[in-house]
């Protein structure tokens, strides 16, 4: 398979993966309700995305690096909202 097609496939797959986070980010941001969000899941996801970025750098794959970077940002926002919600709950 040609490299261009592989890169295009990776870009489309990465875009789909990253876009799947957007509804969760918007819901958590707007409603502030993060009770059903698993802190452990997002911590482990951030670790996994970080490892994928390292892997992408090692194989010089733009889609792997780019979209795992986007996923780190989006998952990080969700985790930050979760942690902020936990602190607000503890303060009451």
UniProtKB/TrEMBL annotation:
Keywords: Membrane, Transmembrane, Transmembrane helix. Its main location: membrane. The keyword Transmembrane helix applies. It comes from the Bacteria. Signal peptide: none annotated. One of its GO terms (molecular function) is sugar transmembrane transporter activity. One of its GO terms (cellular component) is membrane. This is MtN3 and saliva related transmembrane protein. Pfam families: PQ-loop (PF04193). It comes from Microvirga tunisiensis. It is a multi-pass membrane protein. It is found in: Membrane. InterPro entries: PQ-loop_rpt, SemiSWEET.
